[in-house]
Amino acid sequence: MQPDTFVAADTAHYIDQFARLNKGLPGIDVAWFDDQRKKYLARFSKIGFPTQRDEDWRYTPLRLITSKNFNVVTTPHRNVDLTRFKIPALDSYQIVFVDGHLDQKQSTLDLNKGDITVRSLSEVLTNTPGLVEKYFGSVVKNNSHGFTALNGALNEDGVVIKIEPDVQIEKPIELIFLSQTEMAISQPRNLIIAGKNSRAQFIDRYISNSTAHTLSNSTTEIIVEQRAEIDYYIIQTQSSSAYQVCGVWVKQAEGSRFSCRTITLGGGLVRNDLRVDLNGPGAHCDMLGVYSLSGKQHVDNHTTMVHQAENCTSNELYKGVLEQRSRAVFHGRIKVASGAQKTDAHQANNTLLLSRDAEIDTKPQLEIYADDVKCSHGATIGQLNEDSMFYLRTRGIDEADARTLLTYAFVNEVLNQIDIEPLRDVLEKTLASQLIHEI
Fold this sequence. Notes:
Blueprint: H1 9-21, H2 31-47, H3 63-66, E1 71-72, E2 93-98, E3 101-102, E4 116-120, H4 121-127, H5 146-154, E5 159-163, E6 173-179, E7 184-186, E8 189-194, E9 199-208, E10 214-224, E11 229-236, E12 242-252, E13 257-264, E14 269-278, E15 284-293, E16 298-307, E17 313-322, E18 327-336, E19 343-353, E20 359-368, E21 373-382, H6 386-393, H7 399-415, H8 421-438
Parallel strand pairs: 1-7, 2-6, 5-8, 6-9, 7-10, 8-10, 9-11, 10-12, 11-13, 12-14, 13-15, 14-16, 15-17, 16-18, 17-19, 18-20, 19-21
Antiparallel strand pairs: 2-3, 4-5
Helix pairs in contact: 2-5, 6-7, 7-8
């Protein structure tokens, strides 16, 4: 085989799956969508998976994923019992995916009332593909990495949510992605369009069977039109045998507000790509994150905030707690374009290391091409404050409880900004339980 046609072993498995499953994938009869699939496949065939030789993946051990052959589930389980995953007291619309496929019986699909569309991607492509043609693929960057290209080629389903102008959704839309089959890869492709002056809350939850080795490789595009407001939560509580690559791309228009809170409390290896383009004057974005890891867990948060227009503001704060041999990567980039005067952008990454063997690689970046801006970035890495420990010990609190209290207080700055009370309560309890166990 000639060098220019060589296919690496770790990509050949998925190219073979595409050849075998292509005719059964959604959108095969939709010319523009099928063309996109083929372009994504061509890109994946050319670039393959990233490696640690790539600067953006330098500190992430991708061989944990690429050395394994995960398989698309063609006959997913239905009516899976989700009782143990429910969030008490949370009143939400639920959309459930099992191993990448919509579970209609457990999903709330009666939201389609004229002012909002909530449908599976496969159903939209079958019945009304024109609904998403101008949006689909308009936010994801053409030079995205191999995992995104693989999703574009081999996605099985996803959700399409379109909110009409001036509509406010009265309760959160909860997207549940359950990975449960041994060596299964799920690749949801999601599209959210928030019309002018609309408002909604979304909770993306990634959960898994506690013993199955799985890979979730998701791509979500979000379009926030003029003066729309979106609160978006990414909640990752998968087991240590589950791997995840989560990509979210956002495009904001004039006066819009987008807030994303990423909470990573599980997973063997998790990579989060979050890119937000503030394309209209007066747009605002909050990026907030918490990660708490133990054992040999690994999380890589890779964020990009691009200020394209004037008078836009952004705030980014990620806090992490690492115990035992866990490892984290934070690569945050703020870019201010030449026309984005009056930009006000701030970024910080703060991490506690509770073990000598825990490690964080952090790289905050500023790239500024305008001269009338207020921008800051920074990172801190440390241990618990000994003076605070001493203060608590002198008041009768034992060492383990004192460490737990101080650690919890450190990350609670972000958790306090979760506006959905039942979600905040369950995350606080989960985190507190982890900290007690780890410490």
